Amino acid sequence: MNLKTNERVIRYIQKKIKDSQNIVAVIGIEMLVEGGGSDLDSNDENYRIEKTYGYSTEDILSSSFYNAKAAKFYRFYKKEILGMNVDKTPAYDALLKLQAQGKLSAVISQNFHGIPKGVSFQNLIELNGNFDSNKCPRCNKKFNMKYMIHAEGIPMCDRCKTAVRPDIRLLGERVNTILLTETELALEAADILLILGKNMYNDRLEHNLSLDHEQLRVLFSKDDVLSDRKVDFVIKDDISAVLPLIIE
Q1: pLDDT digit string (tens) for 154-193?
Q2: Is the pTM of this model over 0.70?
């Protein structure tokens, strides 16, 4: 296998993981892409989205756009977000192996696309929600993704005829304080932090914590913009190529 990552770096991280009992994985967009999803914030996808819908991905996935242009929001959301199929990858298998070893204390998902079928984490924090969870803001009745996809136009609550709201964090909205606290506690306690791709919200939560103990931070990303972050190593190979190597 032809990797960009130095073999000594792989062996070093491998040893650290072997000796650790408290590892946290932060799932980002690269994990989504390797599973067959799309990075809608990439230059090519942003160009396509703007050409197709007349607005950028960032504009459409904002709370202000949802509130003002719900019909256009759902035209985009149903096709581009709910229509995205994401499969399990060797990277998820590696994390499950780490969990079976009792070393994986938490998985923090920065994506709202959910975890692929066949993957179950004991301590999963979906920081920005999950698109399979939707509810009526008036009566709080819940609806699944299937209901949202097959609804004509704007999905409406069949009980009180109010527009159903995806239970995800849109751009411009605050992070749920309970989930944020859980995330910060998990990040602060970790001996090793595996940052598996970039965060579409650019919160940099995992990079702005004051720690009272030594922590190894490994960022997996091919995006050069992220290389200035406060991490120990930047891995530019596919996550699914390297993660199984460093988790024995």
Answers
A1: 999 999 999 999 999 999 899 899 999 999 999 999 999 9
A2: yes
Across the range 27-31, mean pLDDT stands at 93
| Rounded-to-integer distance, Cα 56 and Cα 53, Å | 8
Angle between helices 7-19 and 239-246 (to 10 degrees): 50
Q: Alpha helix locations (H) across the chain? A: 7-19, 29-34, 43-53, 57-60, 63-68, 70-76, 90-100, 145-150, 177-189, 239-246
CB 128 within 8 A of CB 201: yes
Helix then strand then coil, in percent of the chain rounded to 5, is 40, 20, 45
Number of residues assigned to the chain: 248
Q: Report the interhelical angle of 239-246 vs 90-100 (nearest 10°).
A: 20
Residues forming beta bridges with residue 23, ordered by sequence position: 104, 192
CA distance 220 to 76: 29
Q: What is the DSSP string of 82-108?
A: TT------HHHHHHHHHHHTT-EEEEE
The residue type of 10 is I
